[in-house]
Amino acid sequence: MAGLAACADRGAWQRASATPEQTRTDERECRALAQYESRRDIRWREDVFEQSKDLGPDDRFSPTLRRQQFETEYRNRERRLIDECMSAKGYTRSGGIF
Q1: What is the pTM assigned to this prediction?
Q2: Residues 10, 97: contact at Cβ < 8 Å?
Q3: Which of 2, 25, 30, 66 would give a disulfide with 85, using CB separation of 3.0 to 4.6 Å?
């Protein structure tokens, strides 16, 4: 189900006072900020995971599964940060499936 939600059409960003160019600019800025924040967080988590390997085996997750988990969390966090940034700029989503 999570994969389906990630692919769902979430609608276009709208703000009454924004031109289409302003909307694209704001979304690019929000996306860049979200990517920076998410990548920083994922690097921190990977560093912590690498250091914790010395504490003993973690039988619950293989390195590949752990990496997939980090990537999924990265995408979800990036999406949330973009949404928060655009909302803070006064945008709302039009239509779409959430």
Answers
A1: 0.68
A2: yes
A3: 30
